[in-house]
Structures are given as C-alpha cells and as structure tokens.
Design a protein that fits this description.
The complex is a heterotetramer. Chain A is mainly α. Chain A is built from 27 helices and four strands. In chain A, strand 1 and strand 2 form a beta hairpin. Chain C contains seven helices and no strands. The chains are: A mainly alpha, B mainly alpha, C mainly alpha, D mainly alpha. Chains in contact: A-B, A-C, A-D, C-D.
Chain lengths: 668, 501, 180, 99
C-alpha cells in the first residue's frame, strides 16, 4: 500500500503538468493554476498516507522497493523503473510537496498578470514531478533521471522570461554545469555497477561493505564522482557560479527550486549514499571541507552584493554548505533537519523579497530600497521572521538545526574542531547579511516606491526594464505583466507566507535536544547501519552549543544594527578602505572568471582551432589533396592522349606484343 | 516478404512517373506507408530469440557464388523499422510543399529507400556491397538536382557566415569520397570471398564466410578496406571532409533521411560484416578504432558548437553521435554494442524531425544561420515544445532512450578502460551545450526584425508529432528495442569476444 | 605445280603490299593494292576458296578499289610533307612490325598443331568452296550474321552520305561552291 | 603446299600493313594498309578453313569483306569530308581529339 501511495505521489504532479501543458489553449488561466495547486496538494496528501503506511511497519523493515517494469536490461546491467520508499525519501517527499504546495499557492497570485501562466504552472508541476523522481527513485539510474529532469526544469524556469538575453544565458549556464554534474553521476553509477554488479539501492548498500575495504581507491572514486554531481546541483565550490545567475527566473522559482528543494538534492544524495561515504571517509571529508569553504566564501559575497535576490541566493549556498558539512561529518539527521528548516525560512525570505521587488516595479537593488516598514507591514514582519530564523536567533527553527550541525563538529573533535570554528564564523556572517537586508530595506524614510504604495494602495508602475542590465524590455512576449502582486493584497501570497512564517518560527521545536527528537527518531531506520548512528553529543553539550549559537547570532545582529543604523557611514568607509577585498567579494571571488579561464576559453579555443585551422587545412586540405592527385594523374594520362593516330597504333602494337609475349612465355 | 519490403518503394516510385503530376506525391506517400505496414508485419512475426529469420535465398550469379539472399535479425529489424518510419515524414513533408520535377524527385527518394533497405537486409556480401553503392546514386541526384548553391554574395538564406558552397563541388566531393570507400570495400568483399573459399567453392554468403574464417594476415588489410567505406559513410573523423558541403547544399527532406539512416549503414556494417568476419583484425585494431571514435566525439562536438549554420550543427552532432556508436561497437561488450544499436535507432528518430524543424525555421526566418535568429517561440509554443523535446533527446537527457543508449555505451567503454569512458563523457557535456545553444538561439531571446514567429501548421504537426511520439514512447521503454536485439547483438560480437579473450 | 603457283602468288602479293606502303603517290598505292588483291585471289584458289577468290576480284579489286581511285583522284595526288612530326616512327615502326611477325610466327608454328605441317585433308566434301556450298552455309547456319552484316553495310552507306555530304550551312556560306 | 606457309605469308602481310599504318600519314594510304591487314586476316582464316576441311571459315571471310567494305566507305567519307573543309590530309595534323 505504501508503494501505491508513493507512485501516486509521482503521478499527480505529472498529470497536472501534462493537463496544463496540453490544455493551454482551452483552460482558463485560473483553472490551470488551480489544477497545478491541487496536483501538488494531492501529492502531499499521498505522501502523508505513504508516511502513515510506512510507520505501520516494524522499524527494521521500514523500506519498500517497488518496480513498474523493466526499463532496460543488458549484460547484467538491469535497470528497473522502480522506487524505493524509506523514511529518508518520505521525509524529502513531504518537504518537497509541502513547500511546493505553498509556493504554488503563492505563485497563483504572484504570477497573475504574467503572459505565460499556463507554461509556468506546467513547468512548475513538472519540476515537482522530477524532484520526486529524484528522491523516490529506486536505483542510481532513476536518481540520474530525476537529477537531470530537475536540471531541465530548472533550466526551463530560469529562462522562463526567455526574451531576456540574460535569462537565457543564465539558463544555459545552469544547465551545462548541471550536466557536468550528471556526468559525475554517470561515472559513479558505472563504477558501482562494475564493482557491485547492480545499481539498485538495496543491493548496492548491502553489498558495499562486503566488497570494499575502507578508503579503497575505487570506493573513494565512486564517492568523489557522486560528489561532483552533488556539488554541481547544490552550487558548491567550484560549481557554484550558476546559482546567482539563476535568479533571473521568477521569484517563486527562486524560492522553490533554487532555495528550498532542488539545490538541496546534493545533501539528499550524500545522506542516501551514507553507507558508501562511510567506507570512503576521505571523500566524506572532501564533502565537508568543500561545504565549509562554500559557506564561508558565499557568506562574504552575500555581505558585499546589493542585488536583493542574489544576497538570498548566496545565503542559500552558504546554508547548503552547512548541510554538506553536516552530512559530511556524519550528522545525517541534523543535516536533513537543517534542510527542512532551511526550506521553510528560505522560501519565506524569497517570497517576502518577491513581494518587495514587485513593489519596486521589478527593481532588485537594495541600495534603492528604503522604508518599507510602514508601507508593507505584513511583508516586513515575514522578512524579519525569515531573517531571524536564518541567522539562528534563539527559539527559531534555524537556531536548532544549524547549531546541531555545528555542535556535532565540535563533538567529533580533532580536525573537525577547525570546521566548528569556521562554521561559527559563518554563523556570524549569516547574521550580518540577513540583518543587512532588514536594516537597509525596512527602517528609515520611505523611498518613492514605498511612499507611492502607502499613498495609493497599489504598486508603482515602472518602465519595463531588465533588472540585471537595465535594458528596456520587449513587452510583447513572455512579459511579466504590468504588475506583480504584493503580499499585502493577495490572499494566496499572504496565506503561503503565514504558514511558512509559522513553520520558520516554531519548526525547530520538533527536535529539541533532550526534549523530543522527532527527526532523528523518524530517520533512524535509514541511518541505523551508520557508524555514527549512536554517536550523539550529550544533552548538556547540545545545550551549550545552542547557547554559543544564540550568542553569535545576537552578537551578529547587534553588530549589524550598529553598522547600518547607528553608524551608517561606517560601511561606506569600510568599502573605501578595503577596496580590494570588497571587489573580490562583489565579483564573487572571480568564480566566473576562473571557470571561464580554465574551462570555457580553452574549449572555445579548441573549437575555433578545429574550425579555422584543422578543418580548413587538414580536412579540406586532404580533400583538396585527393582532388589534386586525381587531377595530376589525369594530366599525366592526358599527355599520352596526343591525338597522334600513329602513336596510338604504336601503343596498341606494344600492348598486343606484350600480351602475345606473356602467353608465349607461359606456354613454354 | 523481405523482397516486397525492399522493392515496394521503388515500384511506387515508378508508378509515380505514370500518374498525373498532382498525384505523384501522394503515390509516394502511399508507397512509404505500405512499406512501413509491411515492415510492421515483419516485426509482428519476429521472434527475438530466433536468429536469422524470413530468409530468402535464390541463386543469382551461380558462377560467382552470388546469391540474392535476404534475412532479418534483431539488429536489422530495428534499422529496417527506422528506415521505413523515417522516410514517411520526409516524403510527407515534401508532399506538402511544391517540388520541381516531382515524379523524378519521389522516384529518387523511394529508390533511396529501396537501396537502404536492401543494404540492411542483404545476407550476401556482394549484394550488400551492391546496395551500399546503389544508395549513393539517388542521393547524388537528389543533392545535385534539388540542392542549391549556398552562402554566396547575396544569399542571406544560405548562412554566408560559413562561406560559399556550390552544389557541383559539394556533390562531387561526396561522390568521390564515397566511391573511393565503396571501391575499396568491393575489393575487400571479393578478397574475403576468394580467400575464405581457399580454392573451394566460391560463395559470398556472409554466414558461410564467417564460418569458414579468414587467415589473420588477410584480415588485417580487408578490415581497413571495409572500415574505410563505413567510416566515410558515417562520416567519422577524419573522413568527414565531404560532409559539411554536401549537408549545406542538400534539400532538407532528403538530407533528413540521409543523415538519419544512411549513416547507420556504416555502423551496421561494422556489426554485421566486420566484427564477425574479421575478429582478429577487429581485436588488433580495437584501440585505433576507439581513438577514431573518441576523436569523432570530441571533434564533432567542438565543431557543432562553433558552427552557426543549423545544418552543420546537426551534421557535426551526427559525427559525434556516430562516434559514440562506433565506440560502443568496438568496446566488444554486450552493453556497449547494445547501447550502440539503441543509439542508432534513437539518433535516427531524432535527426529526422530535427532537420525538418530546420526547414520550418528557415521558412519562418528566411535563414538557416543561428546568429540573426531568435524568439521564434513567441507565437509558436507547440513548435517550440516539439523542438525542445527533440533538442533534449539530441543531448541525451536522462529519461530519454538516447540516455540509456549513451549510458550503456559509456559502460561498455568503461569495461575497456576508464579513461575511454571519461574522455567520451566530455562529449556528453559538449552535447548539452550545442543542442541547447541551437534551441535557445532559435526559439528564445528577442525576436529580430523580419522574422515571422508563426505556429506550426496542422499538417506539419502531423508529420512531426508521430516522430516525437515515438521518441517519447521509447523514452519510457527502451527495453522494447533492447529485448528484441539483445540476442542478435550478442551473437554479432560473440566471435570477436572469443578472440579478445 | 602447286608450289610454284604459291610462290608466285606469295611473292606477287608481298611485293605489291610493300609497294602499297612505300610508293609516295596514293594513286599508285591504290593500283598496287589492286595487284596485291589479284595475286591474293590466286592464293585463295589454292586454298579451295573459289567463290571467295571470285568475290575478291569482283567486289574488292573491282568495286571497292574503284571507290579508292575516285577518292584518290578527287583529293588529288598529295605528296606527304617532308617534315615528319615523329621521325622515330620510321625506324620504330618496322622494328615493332618485325617483332609482331616473329611473335605471330612463333605462336602459329609453336602451337603444336600437327595438321599445320600438312596441306590439309584430301577428303574435303564435294563442292568445297563453291558458291553453292558457301551460300547454303550463309543462308542456313549464319543467317543472323549475314543479316547483321547487311545492316552494317546499310548504316555505313548512310554514314558515308552524312559525312561526305555538304551541310546546309556550308551550302549557304558557299552558294557557288561545288555541288554535293 | 603445307598450311604453315600460308600462315607465315599471312603474318608477313599483316606486319607489312602495320608498318604502313605506323609510317604513312596520308589517310587514304592508311586505309589501304588497313585493307592489307584485313586481307591478311582473311588469308589466315581461309588457311585454317582448309586445314580443318570446314567451310565456316569461308563465311567468316565473306563477313570480313563486308566489314572491310563498310570501313572503306566510312573512312573514305571522312577523307572527303576533311578535304571539303580544307583540312590538311595528314593524320598528324588532325589531332583535335587530344586530351
């Protein structure tokens, strides 16, 4: 029964996507939106039913594999169209469908005036379907399928406003980087098949400890290849450059795909393959260190940039860095816990940002925003809740989840103490950049857009401009419409944000050290084979950790307050003084340029070389050479063709004689 | 049964000469549809574990041991299906537009189908060579007569960015390259028959020659004679010199089937003739062939993303795809070879709609050059979605059958050596780039002046949608093809695997 | 008696043949060929080919050679120019011809056919070589070849008219020219 | 008289004719030399016919004569045409057919 519910979880979003897609000419826009929402809500309900079914099983057999048909099978490499349901996948299903439902409701209002309403919901439902394939897939090939389909959906939604050159470029970048990640997974799957003879989760995880010894190079290679995929999808170093550009997509997309769900797939992957990673501690350490590097670097960038959505995007990278550290060092349930709370507060932050951006007539620069506190009280409240949860303010969900990871690093000690220190610094930066947003946007005298909203009760009409380049927009096609909606006025948005706001505030209470450990207990069947399964910091240590986190967070918020409210001249001075550092951060540590220099330029140069030099000289040259050879051979024979009749007679005689002599000699 | 499949198209082509002008095209469509029906009939009665089936064997030139011998097995059946399927959209697409000298045009197209089917079905080496050579004749005329000069001074439509091409020189290049290959293959075929007979009764039957075997020394040179013909036909790097010009000059419907099906004859030849007949040489030259294949992948992909002419993008992407197929075959692994067969069918199914879409794009923008295009999706969502599906299948996105093919090929390559698979997978990443670039630069971005964004017409949709439908169905169940061909593929590579051990 | 006749015929035929090749004036060459044909007809008789001997004299030496005479007279007795573009042929040609002769002789004499050394069987059927016998063969066994040959002759006649006949545009250009 | 003699005579006549073809440049004379070679061939045929006591050879000779006549007709037609066009009657000068 559980499997049936799980299949239904997959079916509804697919059906929704197809119905909207095929019916785009027939269905009224409202109906399409409602179909989209109900498909996801239905999937969420099926997810809950599957959860109930699964919880009915005894703890040691709490996993179900189910297969529809044989997808492909050659030479022992058998691939089933199958799913694998266990607490981990159900956890992900619930997070994905739950957050998606809210974001669909939000989009229903937010995208109201958009010209591609059907397309948007069709893509969005398709994304949810793909994401569910990713988390439910029963073998590595299904994982790859889901992995690539979410990449595709992400591409389609990033370049959703396809008349913008910037959007299409960003989509391309995201897609290609993700394909590189896919290739990592291909090779990992091939290696797994070669060594273990199967790609099914059940068989693989069971046989891996028998086949591999710890840190054998092959298992390390497998894990590193998996990590390539994970890094690419989760925008970790050095594959991080696409995520900021992905903000070209509509805000609900950023909220759903590029914050709450898809980008956390890498974390899910490591958690799913934890039994492989525990056989390759080196690879697990790589994951953790890369996560740490990303969280710190992304933090510095988030402090420097001024584009509202990009600040949140870098904060996403940074938070995923925490999750990577978590699952890298063995704090699986903590990592998954942070994944969940992050989905709540990050989706909330993006939604609030979307509301503000529409009020700004699609402007995203925080330098131009000011004084929205009075104009948009609801949005302001939600923004503050999001920022508090993000910075780990005591009591909020982020406080519990983030500090659980940080604490676990300290608990493992040794080399991991360095990570602990790094993560504390990161936490401080988190507080700084989240409240930088708050203190720049909300207080102070209202900017003209906020004033207009306050006076007229609706948002200002701006020139249709591309927020990234400032170019005037082509309004005829794929145009977002005269106005987006703001949370103050649209019921759907208000509802979605309220729910998320509540969850961001109290969502952490499900996992309070020493009180209730719902997540850990729920996920236990999945992670029980882990060596870290029964290693926990004691309740006392955990509370000490939470105390440290609270301190850092409050310090950070106070520091930011001092910087932006008390002495607003200081940031400018800092910027002047440390021009180089600021340039480094604003330019994203030159990640784009480095990739461009190391990979894109050489490939392009190779292409040019092929085209201009090789093709022209070697291939055409060879062709011309063959032609020339034929021609000169022709010329040689042509000279014999003198037109001299008597010459021909002589030649003929030579021929006759040669043949005659040949036969005469043979007859001897 | 197989004879009727082979000759039906030609018969209808000839009937087309007799009927009034306005019916010619529809007679051709009817012929192609009947051929498809016949091949479906064969497929329905096909037994995946039955080896060679529907065998026809009539003595033809008894003095030389040449038989009119036909047969079908798990590999050829799907290629025959691909052929009969692929020709229908090409002919329908032409039928909906006016063509000069229609009777001759459709006769040539259908003659091309006849000879291609003959090559896939022939079980006699000389018959195979004959059909292989005959294939090029109708296409020579199709390209030469209905093609046109491109990229001249005032030729905005012909992508001047890629330089000028004249029909004569393009077709001449093609015919010279192909003929050199074919003649070498003819010599190789005769040599194979004579040497394997070893003074005994001369026969060209492929099965008999395989059973008799060839001495190792002779295998080595006969191998290259065959390989030359097949590599040129594919085309593979560095024998693709004829491809860019011919592709640019050719009429698109003919080019669609040419690129989709004829290139597969080369790969099919490796699987049917070269591996079983020359196992020692295949084993000896495995590394060389793999290097060529990988070079095709990398080079084709690199060219595909620098070219601005849509036809060339597709053409070089074919070079890369055929590189994958060759690599899969020469991995001597059942997953690799099966992946190659799957990929042959997939690539054929994708290329036909791709070229027809190029034709439709050219009708809208008046150009086939990527630079000045864009924004066509504006009023044509259905058209854009069809193209999107085709592009995604081209780049072998997981969940398409192309992905399964590519994955199996990579897996096969990995069994030979990890480095092969890793280098080949670079091609996967590059494919993502060029396929998406092609889609984006035509469908997305602002719509330039003078371009006409217009929804696909119902008739064109009727041509494209079934093809796309097949691609989608296969995406859900590639096992359909794998199951049917597995046994035949295994027996094709069985001998060479023995040797390789 | 037979030998004498052969040698006379052979020497005459050969001598006339050399004359054809050597004589400068084509008109004399034609006459030499007529003489050659007469001697050859004699040798034909020795080989019991009475009908062919007659045909050779009547059709060949008579009709065909008249044609040659007409043409030679029409185009005039043109002397060959002194300058020869490839004088080496004057030496190479005869040497090659001698080599050819030797090759043919070796081929014929070395073939090991025992009948070569005999004058041929005596018991030839009665009427060997008579018009009646040849006519029977021609009309019975070789009818198709005969018809083909006659067709060829017809075609050749038409071809000659087309080739030698004056073209219309020539006629227009040269209205006063010689009639065709 | 043995058949050998006839055959050798035929070979001699053939070689003589060939010399003429190679050495002479007047088309009329070359045609005459071709006649010589044909008659040599006819002689050989007759000799074999006599040797075998079979008259088929005689029919062949008759056909050869017909073919020779045709050749003469066409050849002389060419000569006349050349003369009409004021072309030099020298085969070395008539070489427009060169490659």
């Amino acid at each position: 029964m559980t499997a049936t519910w799980a299949w239904l979880v997959l079916l509804f979003p697919l059906l929704g996507s197809l119905t909207i897609g095929f019916g785009f000419k027939v269905l009224p826009a409202r109906v399409a939106g409602l179909i989209g929402i109900s498909a996801i809500v239905a999937a969420f309900i099926c997810g809950i039913l599957a959860l109930i079914g699964l919880q009915g099983e005894p703890s040691e057999s709490r996993h179900v594999a189910s297969s529809l048909w044989e997808y492909a099978n050659v030479g022992g490499l058998r691939i089933d169209l199958g799913i694998y349901v266990d607490p981990l996948s159900i956890f992900m299903v619930l997070v994905v469908t739950g957050v998606s439902s809210l974001i669909h409701i939000y989009s229903y209002s937010y995208m109201k005036s958009d010209q591609g309403y059907h397309r948007f919901f069709s893509y969005l439902n398709f994304f949810v379907f793909s994401m569910l394939v990713l988390v439910l897939g029963g073998n590595f090939i299904m994982l790859i399928v889901g992995w690539a389909l979410v990449g595709f959906a992400s591409y389609a939604l990033i370049s959703y406003w396809y008349r913008r050159n910037t959007a299409t470029k960003a989509g391309m970048k995201a897609f290609v980087i993700n394909v590189v990640g896919d290739i990592g997974l291909y090779i990992a799957a091939i290696l797994i098949f070669k060594n273990l003879g199967s790609v099914d989760y059940g068989t693989v995880f069971e046989k891996a400890p028998e086949v591999f010894t710890t840190n054998e190079w092959e298992i390390v290679a497998i894990c590193l290849c998996l990590l390539v995929g994970a890094f690419a999808k989760s925008a970790q170093m050095p594959f991080h450059t696409w995520l900021a550009d992905a903000m070209e997509g509509p805000t609900p997309v950023s909220s759903l795909i590029h914050a709450a769900t898809m980008v956390t797939a890498g974390v899910y992957l490591i958690a799913r393959c934890h039994s492989l990673f525990e056989l390759a501690p080196t690879a697990a350490d790589v994951a953790a260190w890369v996560g740490l590097a990303t969280l710190m670097i992304a933090g510095t960038i988030a402090i420097a940039v001024t584009d509202l959505k990009r600040i949140i995007a870098y904060s996403t990278m940074s938070q995923i860095g925490y999750m990577f550290v978590g699952v890298g060092i063995g704090a699986y349930s903590a990592g998954m816990f942070h994944l969940m709370t992050h989905a709540f507060f990050k989706a909330l932050l993006f939604m609030a940002a979307g509301s503000i951006i529409s009020a700004m007539a699609n402007m995203q620069d925080i330098d131009k925003m000011k004084g929205f506190r009075k104009a948009m009280p609801f949005t302001a409240a939600m923004l503050i809740i999001g920022a508090l949860a993000l910075s780990g303010f005591p009591g909020t969900s982020g406080w519990f989840s983030k500090d659980e990871i940080i604490d676990f690093a300290h608990f493992r000690g040794g080399m991991y103490d360095w990570m602990w220190a790094g993560m504390l610094i990161g936490a401080f930066m988190t507080a700084v950049y989240s409240f930088r947003i708050i203190f720049r946007i909300l207080p102070g005298p209202a900017c003209k857009e906020a004033e207009y909203l306050e006076e007229h009760g609706h948002v200002i009409h701006g020139e249709p401009k591309n927020p990234a380049t400032g170019e005037l927009e082509d309004t005829e096609v794929g145009y977002p419409g005269e106005e987006h909606h703001i949370a103050e006025q649209a019921g759907g948005m208000k509802f979605a944000m309220s729910v998320l706001g509540i969850l961001a505030l109290i969502g952490g209470l499900v996992q309070v050290p020493g009180v209730d450990e719902v997540i850990t207990n729920f996920l236990e069947p999945t992670f029980e084979d882990s060596v870290f399964a029964h290693m926990h910091p004691s309740t006392h240590e955990a509370w000490v950790g939470l105390g440290e986190g609270a301190l850092i967070s409050i310090l950070g918020i106070t520091f930011t307050w001092f910087l932006y409210i008390r002495r607003p001249d200081l940031p400018v001075k800092f910027r002047e003084r440390f021009r180089a550092v600021h340039a480094l951060c604003v330019n994203k540590w030159y990640g784009d340029e480095i990739i461009d220099f190391l990979i894109v330029s050489p490939v392009k140069a190779f292409g040019r070389f092929c085209n201009r030099v090789f093709e022209r000289f070697a291939i055409d040259g060879a062709t011309a050479g063959v032609a020339g050879l034929t021609r000169s051979a022709g010329a040689a024979v042509r000279d014999m063709q003198s037109g001299m009749l008597r010459g021909y007679a002589v030649l003929m005689l030579f021929g006759i004689l040669a043949i005659a002599i040949y036969f005469l000699i043979r007859s001897i | 049964m197989l004879s009727s499949i082979i000759w039906t198209p030609l018969v209808f082509g000839l009937i087309g000469l007799l009927v009034p002008r306005r019916f010619t095209a529809w007679v051709a469509v009817l012929g192609a549809v009947i051929t498809l029906g016949l091949s479906i009939g064969v497929l329905a009665g096909f037994d995946p574990d039955g080896g060679m089936q529907y065998v026809t064997d009539v003595s033809w030139i008894p003095g030389l041991g040449v038989d009119y011998s036909l047969g079908i097995d798990g590999v050829s059946i799907f290629l025959v299906m691909l052929t009969t399927v692929a020709w229908i959209p090409a002919i329908c697409f032409s039928a909906m537009r006016s063509t000069e000298r229609p009777a001759l045009y459709y006769l040539m197209l259908l003659a091309g189908e006849t000879s291609t089917l003959g090559a896939f079905l022939a079980q006699d080496l000389l018959l195979f060579v004959l059909f292989f050579d005959l294939m090029i004749v109708p296409f020579y005329f199709l390209f030469g007569v209905w093609g046109r000069d491109r990229g001249g001074e005032d030729d905005h439509a012909g992508s001047p960015g890629e330089g000028a091409v004249s029909v004569q020189s393009a077709t001449l290049k093609m015919i010279v390259f192909t003929l050199i290959g074919s003649l070498l293959m003819l010599v190789g075929a005769i040599a194979a028959a004579v040497i394997s007979a070893d003074g005994g009764e001369l026969t060209f039957s492929i099965q008999t020659i395989v059973a008799r075997g060839l001495p190792e020394g002779s295998q080595n040179w006969i191998f290259w004679f065959f390989a030359a013909a097949f590599l040129v036909k594919m085309p593979a790097f560095p024998l693709h010199g004829w491809m860019p010009d011919s592709y640019r000059a050719a009429p698109l419907p003919a080019l669609a089937v040419f690129s989709a099906v004829l290139s597969k004859v080369g790969a099919y030849g490796f699987l049917r003739v070269v591996l079983p007949m020359m196992p020692d040489a295949s084993d000896l030259f495995q590394t060389t062939m793999l290097v060529l294949a990988i070079a095709s992948i990398i080079y084709g992909s690199a060219m595909a993303f620098t070219k601005t002419d849509l036809r060339l993008v597709l053409g070089f992407s074919s070079v890369a795809q055929l590189g994958f197929i060759t690599a899969g075959i020469f991995a001597f692994d059942s997953t690799g070879a099966e992946g190659a067969v799957l990929q042959m069918v997939n690539h054929g199914l994708v290329v036909v709609p791709a070229f027809l879409i190029v034709a439709m794009i050219a009708e809208r923008t008046g150009s086939e050059e990527l630079g000045p295009m864009g924004g066509l999706a504006k009023k044509a969502p259905v058209f854009a979605v069809i193209f999107l599906i085709v592009s995604m299948a081209t780049l072998a996105i997981p969940a398409s059958a192309n992905f399964i093919g590519e994955f199996y090929i990579l897996n096969g390559l990995f069994q030979v050596g990890a480095a092969w698979a890793i280098v080949a997978s670079v091609g996967v990443a590059l494919a993502a780039f060029y396929a998406l670039r092609m889609y984006q630069l035509t469908m997305h971005n602002p719509l330039p002046e003078g371009s006409d964004s217009r929804e696909i017409s119902l008739r064109d949709a009727l041509v494209l949608v079934p093809m796309v439908g097949i691609v989608v169905v296969l995406a859900f169940c590639p096992q359909l093809i794998i199951h049917g061909s597995e046994q035949a593929v295994d027996s094709s590579i069985a001998i060479v695997r023995e040797v390789a051990k | 008696m037979e030998q004498i006749a052969f040698f006379v015929g052979a020497i005459g035929a050969l001598g006339a043949a050399f004359a054809v090749v050597i004589v400068k004036n084509p008109f004399y060459s034609v006459l030499a060929l007529v003489i050659h044909l007469v001697f050859l007809a004699g040798i034909f008789l020795l080989l019991m080919a009475q009908f062919l001997a007659a045909a050779l004299i009547v059709v060949y030496a008579g009709a065909v050679m008249v044609l040659y005479v007409f043409v030679a007279a029409y185009v005039g007795g043109i002397e060959e120019p002194k300058w020869d573009s490839s004088p080496e042929l004057r030496i190479v040609g005869p040497i090659l011809a001698v080599a050819l002769f030797i090759a043919i002789s070796i081929a014929v004499l070395g073939s090991g056919l025992s009948a070569l050394g005999t004058p041929g069987p005596d018991d030839v059927p009665s009427g060997f070589g008579t018009p009646e016998a040849v006519g029977h063969l021609m009309m019975e066994d070789f009818l198709i070849a005969f018809e083909a040959a006659s067709l060829l002759l017809l075609i050749a006649a038409v071809a000659a008219i087309v080739l030698a006949g004056r073209r219309r545009e020539d006629r227009k250009k040269l209205p006063g020219g010689e009639g065709a | 008289m043995d058949i050998e003699w006839y055959l050798v005579l035929s070979a001699l006549l053939f070689a003589t004719g060939f010399i003429g073809v190679m050495v002479r440049r007047n088309p009329v004379v070359i045609l005459l030399c071709l006649e010589l070679m044909l008659s040599a061939g006819a002689l050989a045929l007759l000799a074999f016919s006599r040797m075998l006591g079979n008259q088929d050879g005689q029919v062949f000779v008759l056909i050869v004569l017909v073919v020779a006549a045709c050749e003469v007709v066409v050849g002389l037609g060419l000569v006349v045409a050349m003369y009409r066009r004021r072309l030099p009657l020298d085969v070395d000068e008539i070489k427009e057919l060169k490659g």
